[in-house]
Amino acid sequence: MNLAVIGTGYVGLVSGTCFAEMGNNVICVDNNPEKLAKLNNGQVTIYEPGLELLYQRNFNQKRLSFTANLKEAVEFAESVFLCLPTPQGEDGSADLTHVIEIAEQIGELLKENSSYKLIVNKSTVPVGTVEKVKEILIKKGSKEFDVASNPEFLREGFAVDDFMKPDRIVIGAESEKAYKLLRSLYEPFVRQGNPIIEMDIKSAEVTKYAANSYLATRITFMNELANFCEKTGANVDLVRKGIGSDTRIGKRFLFPGIGYGGSCFPKDVNALIKTSLDYNSELTLLTLVDKINKEQRLRFFNKIKSHFNNELKGKKFSAWGLAFKPNTDDMREAPSVPIIKMLLEKGARVKAFDPASMENAKFYLNDTIEYAQNMYEALPDSDALLIFTEWNEFRNPDFKKVKSLLKHPLIFDGRNVYDLDDMEEQGFTYYSIGRRTIVGKE
Ligand code: NAD
């Protein structure tokens, strides 16, 4: 099948590459010349495990190409996928500027169109947006087209795996032709029997927000419970295991930490709240989820602050991890950023190491912090080690070395990476989330 993917970011590049891997011919469009120059020069622009190999293979086989020319891509493709950003607007709603702008441009292109086109929206958009896209296309005089909603559920850090073996595919459409096209495109991805779920367009749009908001709610429930465990002397990790083995609950998305972040959960929760208000049907639970999530970062900062008797001026901290989660270089809404900024505001210094996100971190933190070449280089002369992201390489460090490099054997772990007994044995003072504090021998 000939496909166009408009917007070549996390979703677009992964989708385009994986579609090409299944033998489709894919043209990816982007309006960022630097990104295009890299992609046309054999360089992948994001860090995602497994992506580089697939990209190289399909780029070399000429099944995957990159352009700024929307017209060329739309003329070439039978199905056109919109993978455009929908960032949070000032009032919390999803900013649809990019989607609407491209819909208008496609509308112009389809005026004289004689061959059928399926316009598929993959961006996360409020209910009713695909209908708006359709109205724009009709108004512009487009002919021979269908619109569909095909929300994307990939997780950054597992994007290729998730795309190649999705739990489910959701297709919202209005015509049998559109369902059929998307079914045949996705069948190779669900050979193990995972479902392709067909529904109306509005339900597909809501499904995406419901999934992200529910997952954000689970994490938030655990964060609040962790705070309760700290007060009561219970251990949230044990509680997590205790409830997670109930098949009605399940084990995933129950890990407490310093709050969810990333390019999706925060903005999607807020966008759904805003849509619910627009429809006079407020999702009050989500309003609390957003509030608790923001407070979780502050709680972590307060733990650090109160350990130092509110005196952070002149203190030096080492940070392990900056990205909002492991296996990604994405820094959007990473909780590390507000926490680091609060420390800097109080006169502390920070030296950080992240295996993948340091280049992107510079966009948010500039030269307000130092960047280390490796995890141990971040440590010398620091008053404490802060763990913001649970990268695997931080799980089993040489604790003797850590202890010898730090000024004090003190760790604030925002991700519960270490075992409490181990920390006790190693002699660290160790703060984590929802578990007792270990008081070491400083
Ligand atoms: P991104 O910012 O990584 O990528 C968007 C790309 O679109 C960028 O490369 C940008 O240059 C390009 N672009 C912007 N305007 C353009 C235009 N007018 N013409 C051509 N290209 C244009 O965004 P993303 O993370 O891939 O997210 C895209 C959508 O998918 C969003 O709605 C997001 O909520 C949703 N989504 C994201 C994820 C994720 O994990 N990142 C997962 C599921 C769904």
Q: H/E element string?
A: EHEHHEHEHEHEHEHEHHHHEHEHEEHEHE
Query: Which kinds of small molecule does this entry bind, naming each only once?
Result: nicotinamide-adenine-dinucleotide
- Number of separate domains: 2
Q: What is the first-to-last residue Cα distance?
A: 64 Å
| CATH homologous superfamily assignment of the largest domain | NAD(P)-binding Rossmann-like Domain
Strand content: 5-15%
Question: How many E strands?
Answer: 14
Main sheet attributes: strand count, strand direction, barrel closure: 6 strands, parallel
Low-confidence stretches: none
Query: Any idea what the radius of gyration is?
Result: 24 Å
Q: Level of helix content? A: 40-55%
What structural class results from the helix and strand content?
alpha/beta
Biggest sheet, spatial arrangement of strands: 3-2-1-4-5-6
Shape assignment: elongated
**How many H/I helical runs?**
16
User: What is the typical, i.e. mean, pLDDT?
Assistant: 97
Q: What is the architecture of the largest domain at the second tier of CATH? A: 3-Layer(aba) Sandwich
The CATH class of the largest domain: Alpha Beta
CATH topology of the largest domain: Rossmann fold
